[in-house]
Amino acid sequence: MREIAVTDDARQIHLNLFLPTTGHHEASWRHRGARPGEIFSLSYYREIAAIAERGKFDSLFLSDHLAVGRNYEFGPGVHLEPLTLLSALAATTSRIGLIATASTSYTEPYNLARLFASLDHISEGRAGWNIVTSWSDAASGNFGRTERASHTERYARATEFVEVVTKLWDSWEDDAIVADRASGLFADRNRIHEVDHVGRYFKVKGALDVARSPQGYPVLLQAGSSVTGRAFAARYAEAIFTAQQDLAEAQAFYADVKTQARSYGRTPADIVILPGLGPIVGDTEAEAREIERELNEATIPQVGLRHIAARFDGADLSSYPLDGPVPLHALPRPDDVQGAKSRSQLIYDLIEREKSLTLRQLLWRLAGARGHGTVVGTPEQVADRILGWVDRNAADGFNIMPPYLPGSLADFVDKVVPILQDRGRFRRDYDGHTLRDHYGLRRPANRFTGSRLAS
Amino acid sequence: MREIAVTDDARQIHLNLFLPTTGHHEASWRHRGARPGEIFSLSYYREIAAIAERGKFDSLFLSDHLAVGRNYEFGPGVHLEPLTLLSALAATTSRIGLIATASTSYTEPYNLARLFASLDHISEGRAGWNIVTSWSDAASGNFGRTERASHTERYARATEFVEVVTKLWDSWEDDAIVADRASGLFADRNRIHEVDHVGRYFKVKGALDVARSPQGYPVLLQAGSSVTGRAFAARYAEAIFTAQQDLAEAQAFYADVKTQARSYGRTPADIVILPGLGPIVGDTEAEAREIERELNEATIPQVGLRHIAARFDGADLSSYPLDGPVPLHALPRPDDVQGAKSRSQLIYDLIEREKSLTLRQLLWRLAGARGHGTVVGTPEQVADRILGWVDRNAADGFNIMPPYLPGSLADFVDKVVPILQDRGRFRRDYDGHTLRDHYGLRRPANRFTGSRLAS
Ligand SMILES: Cc1cc2nc3c(=O)[nH]c(=O)nc-3n(C[C@H](O)[C@H](O)[C@H](O)COP(=O)(O)O)c2cc1C
Ligand SMILES: Cc1cc2nc3c(=O)[nH]c(=O)nc-3n(C[C@H](O)[C@H](O)[C@H](O)COP(=O)(O)O)c2cc1C
Questions:
Q1: pLDDT of A3 higher than 70
Q2: Chain A residues within an 8 Å CB radius of B172
Q3: Closest-CA residue of chain A to B214
Q4: What is the mean pLDDT of residues B327-339?
Q5: Does position B6 have pLDDT exceeding 60, yes or no?
């Protein structure tokens, strides 16, 4: 409170719940408050979504990898499919946004377009799409390929994919359905458009078999942070998930993306930037540290080592002593990594910055949120960390990654959210209804309506 | 009642609700009781599902065509995507089965397997998959092709598709997740299996990223009635939707499929046969006829003509006088039809059987349920029609196709269902919880568990 004064404008922050099975900490499921036996039960997620909605979160978000998690022996490597789970949660919630991850690498644009349009209808305008290209090799084997396409190739396909999907979402203009009982006219053919897309990767006739949805398009989110990923995000993303540990780097990322957005004719306000944050909240700092220690001690080193291997195209550190220094020379340089470039860079930077880290300490640093920021402290300290980054233009809000569920989410909602509200920085209740309302985003114009009116 | 006595065994019947947007009658949406403005609202389907569940229906079912309906100008040609809508309804209902149509022609087995496994989890064992191969040409253009594959080719792909999907559903054995907090073992690798499928159409490594679902597999349904379609159904289907107008033909179909099932090592009870039935219920027969007349008069001939064209590979009857005889010579023979063989056969047979039909009368005969059976009468008459077919081994129950929604479903539930219950032929309440329970189907064994225990 001393250092971080409320700025004059009291810019409103955004909060998204990143919702995994048992929590984000590698050992979450072993915590006594976790419920690993319920990860396939709707009632469990319903309870969690209700807590987030009580906390007035903008949205909740499900990740997706199209393959069994590599550490499935030592933690949940399976989960409900995002679009089905979010559709069910659309029926049990009323305001919170619902964001599903879906890959552009292993599905057809027509199938994806209708799933998301449908979720947007079902939720009355609360859908979001986290666009990913699937960096992990594991998925490719489930779709007839032996390895994933190159980083460049994946983003090229993603770009065309998004073009096709947004065209399909425009294919029925907002007022295309007239449903005039008397004349027998149901829909106006002049307001329905074949997309007739023929490109390098896709050939799609259209129109979509779902009418334009409440938000026009579901909110488009993106989570790639490499050079290519940032350019893609600057062009298409309306919100960005990103892993950031360091304030200066987060500021640089924030400035870069918002500046790049201008070159695509967009304004900085068109993109909401949400770094990940794993909060461990205690009534005292010591209590918070104790929760962290307990979770870290329940980790299995092999799990963390495999995560590192996965980020660094297979690099194996398992022969190095856990209490010795981190063997940086055994890792490929992030520039050469074909998988998750930006995440490997982040880990690389962390090791270079904190030279005295042992391998075990590194594993623990990554155990809480796999490289995302973490904060351990009192509710006030956590609120300060959040507002500190927002006030310094490093974030527009956070992608909250509770270490275990539902307990640490409830702590955050009950203890941190009221502070953010009291400081006038976070909504006390929803004023809008759609996810675009919550994030302050415009409803996209329909490309066909424009051309029809112009002609 | 006179003619159709209750048989000794009082065989229990099954009822499925075939749930389109505004109803099955071609002019449904123009009926004053219809709600064409709500076809994208969850609340509308929630209300309908609640009526069906109040009526103790076994299940409800959504069809799917992956393209805008050809008559979109004159009736709903767009709709919510089935898996998302059913996932939402899983949250608003508690017992009724939830069956989604999904095509094997335009999706990947891994994607489909996880969507359905997830729906089965979310609904606690109420999911069903209506396996179709997409007979309409329209879909192909949305997936990069210029025309659909041949009938034979589509079923060959469907066969391999089902093999892969069921393998994936078996890839996590039922007890694979141990979640032992103390030891840190989450899942037992000996109970998790890569499927390593390499076939003519698909190459899939597996395992699935969703654990085995409550029903083992969602119930498998099928709706193809051609020779190839029947063989496929006899081999895989646990329930069959079929269009039947004529008792004798329905009996022949019933006997044929149940007999064929034996050649795949199955018993007749392993398959539930559900012909479609569009019921128009009135308190008197005259009242029912009046509802039918009103609906028929609201049809637009062009719509019915296009339906016929679609069934008969494009045959255009629009130049023939509506009140003249049906020009049978202008239709290709069903044997030569590449699209929906069995449905064209049915229409062909109907025309041959009732030689005096005018073209308009034919259109009206098809308007109620597109070639499925219809019954117009009092609640007693409708109940008699249902039990009559079941007692004569033409059906195990019916796929109920209300002419308009929610009104004609409510009539059926409030007036016909109690008669079926009073006659001891239909459940007064659910006794089971899963769709398999309702249909009396066994939970499938896991192929991997068998081999593991045997070795
Ligand atoms: C918060 C967050 C969530 C992510 N979720 C997923 C996911 O669910 N599935 C996935 O394939 N990648 C996910 N990613 C990874 C990125 O989408 C991206 O594919 C990866 O970082 C490689 O892109 P890049 O090289 O541009 O960074 C996520 C990244 C972040 C920061
Ligand atoms: C009640 C019923 C519902 C059907 N629903 C669909 C559907 O939703 N999508 C589809 O492509 N075909 C649907 N069909 C068509 C069949 O699945 C099948 O694809 C078509 O009849 C061609 O197969 P066949 O030549 O073996 O009859 C349905 C058929 C029936 C009887």
A1: no
A2: 78
A3: A40
A4: 88
A5: no
The whole-angstrom separation of Cα A233 and Cα A78 is 28
The answer regarding whether domain A14-283+372-450 maps to CATH 3.30.70.20 reads no
| Among A16, A17, A63, residue to substitute to test ligand 1 (most atoms within 8 Å of Cβ) | A63
Burial pattern B187-203, b for ≥16 Cβ within 10 A else e, equals beeebbbebebeeebbb
Q: What are the distances in angstroms from CA B179 to CA A35, A75, A380, A409, B219?
A: 10, 8, 35, 22, 28
Confidence bin at A440 (pLDDT 50/70/90): very high
d(C-alpha A82, C-alpha A116), whole Å: 11
- Spatial separation of the C-alpha atoms in residues A357 and A359, rounded to whole Å: 6
* Residues facing A219 on adjacent strands: A128
Cα dist. B271→B35, B117, B229, B237, B251 in Å? 35, 21, 14, 7, 15
Question: pLDDT band for position A453 (50/70/90)?
Answer: low
Helix (H, G, I), strand (E, B) or coil at B397: strand
- Note the ipTM here: 0.95
Q: A273 CA to chain B: closest CA distance, Å?
A: 28
B121-152 tens-digit pLDDT: 999 999 999 999 987 778 999 998 766 778 89
Start-end of H helices in B15-150: 42-54, 82-92, 109-122, 137-140
Task: Give the mutation target among A343, A344, A374 for probing the ligand 1 site: most ligand atoms within 8 A of CB.
Answer: A343
* β-strands B177-180, B239-242 pairing: unpaired
Contact between A378 and A288 (Cβ < 8 Å):
yes
- Each domain of chain B, given as residue ranges in start order, spans 14-283+372-450
First CA to last CA distance, chain A: 58
> In what helix (H) or strand (E) does residue A304 lie, and over which residues does it extend?
helix A301-311
Q: Which residue type does A28 have? A: S
**CA dist., res. B230 & res. B342, Å (int):** 10
Q: What is the pLDDT of residues B184-217, one digit of tens each?
A: 999 999 999 999 999 999 999 999 999 999 999 9
In angstroms, the first-to-last Cα distance of chain B is: 58
Three-class secondary structure assignment of A323-337 = CCECCHHHCCCHHHC
With vertex at residue A244, the alpha carbon angle to CA A369 and CA A235, rounded to the nearest 5 degrees, is 120
Q: Residue A34 has which token pair?
A: 């976790």
| pTM of the predicted protein model | 0.95
| CA distance linking residue B368 with residue A331, whole number of Å | 68
